[in-house]
C-alpha cells in the first residue's frame, strides 16, 4: 500500500489540471481612488465665493441700515460701484414708498433676532425713464432682500447685519416674462396688420363700385348729365376713367408682337394685322416703311408736270 501510494503521488499532473502560477501574473493591483475636488480646499475660497457671486448683492449693514460692505455684483445689477454705496444709507437707494416698510421689518428683525424677508425697489444709476408727467426718473428694479442679525454669543451684543439682495423675479424668470410679452405683442401686431388689410380691401372694393356707378350714369357722348363728372375729377370719358381703372385695364390686357414676339413694351403700335399688334420698335419701323412705300406710290401716280390730278 505504501509503494502504490508513493508511485501514484509521483505521477505528474497534466497541464490542464495544474494550479495557476500566481508568481507569473503578480498580485492584483488595488483600484485607484479618484480624487474628489473640494472647493473649500482652494486658497481664500471664501473671498472667491463672495467676489464671483454676480446674481446677488452681499451686504453688511449696521444697526441704522448704514452700508459697511457691498458686493461687486451691484455694479452689474444696478450700475453703482461698491465704494459709492459704502458708508451710505441703504434706504436712500430705495423707492420712497418702500422705505418705511423696510425700516420696520429691519428693526423687527434686529429686535427679535429673526430672519428678515422684504421686497424693495432699488434705483439704477445710469438708466432713466420718462414718467407719466413727462419728467425723468431713475429706473428701478424690484429686489428680494433676505437678512439676519449677528450677535456675539457671550455678551449678546449686536455686531452687524448680513443681508443678500437679488432681483425678483430671477433673471431666468425675467427672460421668460420678456419672451411672453414679446410673443403677445407680436400676436397683437399680426391681428392689427390683418385688420388693416381688410380695411384696405374694403376701400378698394368701394372705389371700384363708385367708378363703375359713375360710368353707368355717364351719357354715351360724354356730355353733361345733371352735373359735370369730368370737372369733379370722376373721369366720365372712356380714355380717362381714373388711374386705378386704367392700371387694372392695362394689367388685364396682354399683347404679343407679331414680328419679334415681345410681350412687354412701353407702347403697342398699329401693324399690318391691326392695332396693337406690334411693339414700339417694330411699329415705328413698319410705319416708316409704310410711309416710304406710300410716297413711292404717290410719285408713280403723279403726272409729268409733277402734280397729281384729281378726277371727280
Topology:
Elements: H1 2-9, H2 22-25, H3 45-51, E1 57-61, E2 67-70, H4 73-78, H5 82-85, H6 96-112, E3 116-130, E4 136-151, E5 158-167, H7 171-217, H8 243-252, E6 269-271, E7 274-278, H9 280-301
Antiparallel strand pairs: 1-2, 1-5, 3-4, 4-5, 6-7
Task: Report a brief summary of the structure.
The chain has about 300 residues and is α+β, with helices and mostly antiparallel strands. About 40% of the residues lie in helices and about 20% in strands.
Give an overview of the whole structure.
- The protein has 312 residues and is an alpha+beta fold.
- 40% of the residues lie in helices and 19% in strands.
- The strands form 2 sheets. A 5-stranded antiparallel beta sheet has the order 2-1-5-4-3. The protein has a two-stranded antiparallel sheet with strand order 6-7.
- It is rod-shaped, with a radius of gyration of 50 Å.
- The N terminus and C terminus are likely disordered.
Amino acid at each position: 500500500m505504501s509503494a502504490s501510494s508513493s508511485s501514484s503521488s509521483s505521477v505528474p499532473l497534466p497541464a490542464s489540471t495544474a494550479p495557476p502560477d500566481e508568481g507569473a501574473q503578480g498580485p492584483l493591483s488595488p483600484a485607484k481612488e479618484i480624487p474628489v475636488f473640494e472647493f473649500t480646499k482652494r486658497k481664500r475660497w471664501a473671498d472667491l465665493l463672495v467676489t464671483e457671486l454676480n446674481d446677488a448683492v452681499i451686504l453688511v449693514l449696521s444697526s441704522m441700515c448704514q452700508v459697511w460692505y457691498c458686493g461687486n455684483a451691484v455694479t452689474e445689477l444696478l450700475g453703482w460701484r461698491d465704494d459709492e454705496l459704502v458708508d451710505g444709507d441703504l434706504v436712500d437707494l430705495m423707492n420712497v414708498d418702500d422705505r418705511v416698510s423696510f425700516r420696520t421689518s429691519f428693526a423687527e428683525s434686529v429686535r427679535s433676532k429673526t430672519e428678515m424677508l422684504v421686497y424693495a425697489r432699488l434705483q439704477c444709476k445710469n438708466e432713466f425713464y420718462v414718467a407719466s408727467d413727462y419728467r425723468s426718473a431713475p429706473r428701478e428694479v424690484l429686489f428680494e432682500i433676505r437678512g439676519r442679525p449677528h450677535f456675539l454669543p457671550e455678551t449678546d451684543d449686536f455686531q452687524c447685519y448680513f443681508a443678500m439682495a437679488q432681483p425678483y423675479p430671477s433673471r431666468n424668470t425675467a427672460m421668460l416674462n420678456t419672451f411672453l410679452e414679446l410673443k403677445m405683442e407680436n400676436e397683437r401686431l399680426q391681428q392689427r396688420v390683418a385688420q388693416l388689410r381688410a380695411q384696405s380691401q374694403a376701400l378698394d372694393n368701394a372705389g371700384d363700385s363708385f367708378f363703375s356707378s359713375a360710368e353707368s350714369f355717364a351719357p354715351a357722348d360724354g356730355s353733361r348729365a345733371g352735373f359735370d363728372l369730368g370737372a369733379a375729377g370722376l373721369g366720365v370719358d372712356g380714355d380717362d376713367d381714373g388711374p386705378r381703372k386704367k392700371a387694372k385695364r392695362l394689367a388685364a390686357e396682354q399683347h404679343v408682337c407679331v414680328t419679334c414676339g415681345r410681350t412687354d413694351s412701353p407702347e403697342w403700335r398699329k401693324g399690318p394685322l391691326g392695332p396693337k399688334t406690334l411693339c414700339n420698335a417694330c411699329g415705328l419701323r413698319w410705319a416708316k416703311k409704310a410711309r416710304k412705300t406710300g410716297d413711292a406710290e404717290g410719285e408713280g401716280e403723279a403726272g409729268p408736270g409733277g402734280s397729281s390730278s384729281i378726277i371727280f
